[in-house]
Amino acid sequence: MPVETSLNIAVLVSVGQHPVSGRARRADQDARAVELGLTLAGRSLSLVHVGDAGEPALRQYLGMGLRTMTVLQEAPEADAASSLLQYFATHPADIVLAGVQAERGEASGLLPYLLAERLGWPLVPRIAQIRAIENGRAEVLQALPRGQRRALTVPLPFIATVDSAAPGARQTAFGPGQRGLFDIQRGLAQADVARAEWVEAQARPRPKRLNVVKAKSAAERFKAATAKPQGQGGQVMKQESSREKAQAIFDLLVAEGVIRQ
Amino acid sequence: MMLDWLLPALLAAALGLLFAGALRRIRLWRRGRPEPVAFLAGLAAMPRRYLVDLHHVVERDRYMSNTHVATAGGFVLSMLLIVPVHLFGLESRWLNLALLLATLLMFCGAVFVFLRRRHPPARLSRGPWMRLPKNLLVFSASFFVLTLLTSGLLPEGFGGWVLSILLAAGVALGLAEMLFGMGWGGPMKHAFAGALHLAFHRRPERFGGGRSTGLKPVDLEAPTLGVAKPEDFTWNQLLGFDACVQCGRCEAVCPAYAAGQPLNPKKLIQDMVVGLSGGSDARYAGSPYPGVEPGNASGAPHQPIVDGLLSAETLWSCTTCRACVEECPMMIEHVDAIVDMRRFLTLEKGETPNKGAEVLDNLIATDNPGGFAPDSRMNWAADLNLPLMAEVGRAEVLFWVSDGCFDMRSQRILRAFVKILKAAQVDFAVLGNEECDSGDLARRLGDDATFQSLARNNIAVLNRYRFERIVTTDPHAFHVLKNEYGDFYPEGKGGDYEVLHHSTFINGLVRDGRLQLKAHKGGTVTYHDPCYLGRYNGEYEAPRALLNALNIELSEMERSGYRSRCCGGGGGAPITDVPGERRIADMRVEDARAVQADLIAVACQQCTAMLEGVVEPRPQIKDLAELVADALVEEVHEPRKAAMSQEQP
Amino acid sequence: MSDVIRRDPRTERILRNRLHPLHESLAGGPVRGPTGLLRRNPHAVGFIGPNGLKRIDRSSTGPAPSGRDLRRSATTHSEEPALPLHRVEQPDFYVAAVLDMAGGRLTSHDRDILGQAQQLARSGGGQGAVVAIVLGEAREAGFDTAGADRLIQVTHCDGQALDDYCPERKLAVLQAVEDQLGPRFWLFPDSVHGGADLGARLAVRLGERPAVHAWQVTETETLCRGGSGRIDIRRHTPRVLLLAEECALPVDDSRHQALPIQLDEYPDVRVCIHDQGLVPVDPSQIPLAEAEFILSAGNGVRDWDQFHEVATALGATEGASRVAVDDGFMPRFRQIGATGTWVTARVYVAVGISGAVQHLQGIGRCEKVVAINLDDGCDMVRRADLGAIGDSSEILAELLALAREHRGGKDTDATVPETLEVA
Ligand SMILES: Cc1cc2nc3c(=O)[nH]c(=O)nc-3n(C[C@H](O)[C@H](O)[C@H](O)COP(=O)(O)OP(=O)(O)OC[C@H]3O[C@@H](n4cnc5c(N)ncnc54)[C@H](O)[C@@H]3O)c2cc1C
Ligand code: SF4
Ligand code: SF4
Prior knowledge:
Chain A: Belongs to the ETF beta-subunit/FixA family. Chain A: Residues 30-168 form the Electron transfer flavoprotein alpha/beta-subunit N-terminal domain. Chain A: One of its GO terms (molecular function) is electron transfer activity. Chain A: This is Electron transfer flavoprotein beta subunit. Chain A: Keywords: Electron transport, Transport. In chain A, helix 2 (59-62) links the parallel strand 4 (46-51) and strand 5 (68-73). In chain A, helix 3 (80-90) packs across helix 4. The longest helix of chain A is centred in the first third of the chain and has 14 residues, at 28-41. By secondary structure, chain A is an alpha/beta fold. Chain A has a single domain (9-192), classed as 3-Layer(aba) Sandwich (Rossmann fold). Chain A has eight helices and 13 strands. In chain A, the strands form two sheets. Chain A has a nine-stranded mixed β-sheet with strand order 9-8-7-10-6-1-4-5-11, with helices on both faces. A two-stranded antiparallel ribbon of chain A has the order 2-3. By secondary structure, chain B is mainly alpha-helical. Chain C is of the alpha/beta class. Chain C folds into two domains: 85-260, 3-Layer(aba) Sandwich (Rossmann fold); 283-407, TPP-binding domain (Rossmann fold). In chain C, 28% of the residues lie in helices and 22% in strands. In chain C, the strands form six sheets. Chain C has a nine-stranded mixed β-sheet, sandwiched between helices. In chain C, strands 20-19-21-22-23 form a five-stranded parallel β-sheet. In chain C, strands 1-2 form a two-stranded antiparallel ribbon. In chain C, helix 6 packs across helix 7 and helix 8 runs parallel beside helix 12. The longest helix of chain C is centred in the last third of the chain and has 21 residues, at 392-412. Chain C is globular and about 65 Å long. Bound molecules: flavin-adenine dinucleotide (FAD) and iron/sulfur cluster (2 copies). One iron/sulfur cluster binds at residues 244-250, 265-266, 269, 327-330, 332 of chain B.
């Protein structure tokens, strides 16, 4: 990959949460962003976290092979964007990478947009790869559903969010993680007042919409109405001819939309 | 006469060289990390360890055992006598006679060595080892004749100068092999290193019939974790590598080697020897790692091992079955070395291959390798009404459920065991969601940090309750609970309970008449010894006794008991999944087919999974608990209602 | 198809009367009885082919064999009542719904957004109008029934088409809407098709704090799903909303005016991001974990060339069981299961795979599973939504033929080229 070596690449990392147990961990997309950064910049990559350096999960990022991480020490209710804005005013970067959205809290994914807007940089969402950086422009691949990719070019400096389709993060190693250092800077963020009014509660299960008729034509709507509800075991075809079985499979493929009509 | 001055000179030179070489070798070992040993006690115990413990292992090969006694005994005696007789010229009829007998004994032994070496089995190394029997013969014959001459038992001037020259050459050759070679890395090195290895073994508990199979903890504060370079091993590990005689017994029993995975324990130990002394494996003359061209490995004490001496795949192929350790006549600890190197790869490099990283992440985040919700540990037993420790506080038996609770197949074993517990009216309880993975998997994958944190969590939970024994159906959990948690009990607290495998426990119930069993019906049955039950914990009897109680006459596989072949499921091998030419489990099922087994009785859920992973048709696989539960004679008056609903929906 | 709704009482009568001589020819397929119960006529399956053999054609895509289908669809149509038209002549405020229009059509998510927009337009006093905003070319005719009172359709901005990825230009259009209409609410689908991206951009541009992953919205209060789906956040409803799928019921009982609105002028755009186009991706090269249609081979595959051909013809990504990998028929990175990849495909077709636990673990999150297997009792067939019991090579051969017919049929009729996939 042709990459100018003198690039300053920073990755914004957050404390994630395991989807099943809810325990703190490195956030998956953030870790993918670190991975992407490491392939571009190696160990000169800088990591920035807004929050508390005492959080053990942060060491999982250091365990990916980085010696230090900058922590803008902030109270939990601080507004991370204002803190980062001040940081990047004094620590210029060419590329800032982040996950698409956090794993905790509001997880709005808005932070990169706020930064981009206030820094006046372009933002490229959901990238899977940075293919090349030449003459002050980067060619990136944006992840689309179904494994599709779109090529985009964007001038430096820019912010990109890294999609879950980007290469998986390398394993974090315990030893380097424990020995890594935090460069702690007192943050000067304002408190996020809007959030104070919100009420958080354990997620309620969302009611499943029953019998949604998504079909376009009457025939399809009919099919949707008569389709067997899920979870009752499937249909088994034994006596029919091979042709009929194949036809049934083919119909299913078409109905599921995996064969282009 | 020429020999009068030449002989002492040669002897003195050879001894001097041996001495210099030995010093150099000792310096090489001392490059390893320090480890305290009972120095004098070890030296004092050495002869006994050699004569009893080592020979206990060597004796599995009768031929070689007798041969070795004759040759080695003869040689040691000869050397003890040669020094006074030929170096210091002490003249004594009795000494001469003794020396003659000693050399004769050695000669006889050497003849047998020679015979064995005419058509050596594939596991033996060639190269310098091929010339050893000849040199043994030359040495013993030369000194025999020489002693005959000097003792005046032969007429003066017998043989003339021709004989003198021949003898001089023979003595020189013999001394070169036996003494110079011993100090400078020839095949005889094993005698010198082996003796010291026995004296300073890092697991002295193994001698005198003991067992020491638990891995040693990593100091997580150390500047590097695990072994990256040969000098990161402890000094007595390095010494141990040097003791290897390249007999290849380890190679012959290694399941990974047989499956064509790139691991050969003998080569691995030899590579460590290359590493500790510096150089390349060009002179290695044994079987290579399957699929890896030999001759390209090189290393030095301060150079990284992985990708210099061997590839990471070699390390990850090992199932930690301990067959090699069990079989090694020099009592070398292959598994310790392999896990030490894995520790570096996992803890320092973050290079646990394949699904390893994911499994470790899961263990950290959910306390189980599958990433299942930690509060769903009791879902399997929703209908069983199991008493929870958190509620009852004390019980006679703590049933350690293990991660089998998340796996549908293992749940059948767990349910069967619960049925047995209830039938025998055992006072038991489970930990429920308080239980974590035992840490076995994390530890074998080299992640001692995660192992230690899991172990400490579990210990904290265990210390909260009162019980007399822990019983588990999982030999891996059994092993770590029994043998590896001891290092982590907070000062003087806890650990004062028995840990039992369910086979032992059920067998006890049967012996005490607490279970009524019908005879098992069905075809031929064979029993597969799980490594972590058998070799790790020496339990070969209880499962067999139990099967016997079911009126089963076992049709034993060729490799059973301490020689049992691994199912391929240990050491995280199914997770790192290094490709080979065959699957270990397939070979094991083949072993069972060879004795026409219709059913393989196992005593481990991991073995069940591995063997059932073999493509059908194959023998049925059933855990002991399932066999016993099926054969239970149901009590007419069921004492507890809960024991009724057993069958899985 | 014409939308004129025409009842045919005679056909309806025949359909109701199962003893009518013409009943069979009309009620060929499964039909709902008057009570809504499914009625099947087991004798009416298939038709007699020219050689006198009974033929069953299950293809819903093939050319309609007779006039039967047409007439039947006419009858189902006739059940739909004419929808009342909802008029908004002088809106007091606007609710803007920016639509994804993936593939140029309304997605189901778009319809939910419009449904939500209608709810907001009718609450909180005054009469609001829902403005559907469509950026780029569209091939959709149903904005009226989907709930759009007004329609802003912009295909070009700054002299450039809005079809590619051009968030900066699209944002400029939205700013123009803001300037001209000042909507009370801005609604976006919180989707990967651009809705979430555009919504976030507009929110920061307007200095609004949007509600994200919102799934229950009233005029005053919004419930948002938080990180990892583990918490709900209750908050005041902001101006900009990024709405989750199924946040509201789509409009289905009214028609709307969908009056076009022209935008006066656009602000200047500084375009930094340039779209270089889609990178062609071969379905077989899609990483298994991302693939949405997987054809997977096991120990029961007999003809490997045929298997690969079928995968290519169907445009499926290939997967394999461990045995197929061990035996050297498939590369290791294709292995699915405990020690291979865990896949999330929408459709997973297992050919000759017995369904060992280690394999099933890897497909736990697949939506539809199809099993082709000789053994109807094996675990894969039990797991499957559709099990075809029979020899794999025979069924694959038929499948291959079907795929080729399908392709063949398609190449001749000139369909509109697909620009983006519909999820
Ligand atoms: C630790 C461990 C990890 C494992 N990990 C994985 C893993 O990640 N992925 C994985 O796939 N496996 C894994 N396995 C192996 C797994 O247990 C099974 O052995 C394997 O999945 C079986 O593959 P199969 O279904 O292709 O073969 P089989 O079990 O032999 O099944 C073949 C099937 O094909 C059918 N069949 C035969 N002939 C025909 C025909 N002509 N037409 C149609 N059908 C036919 C048969 O009825 C049968 O159902 C693992 C095993 C272990 C122990
Ligand atoms: S390690 Fe032990 S068993 Fe293996 S070759 Fe060396 S001495 Fe023999
Ligand atoms: S422990 Fe088992 S697998 Fe590992 S080297 Fe020894 S014999 Fe081979």
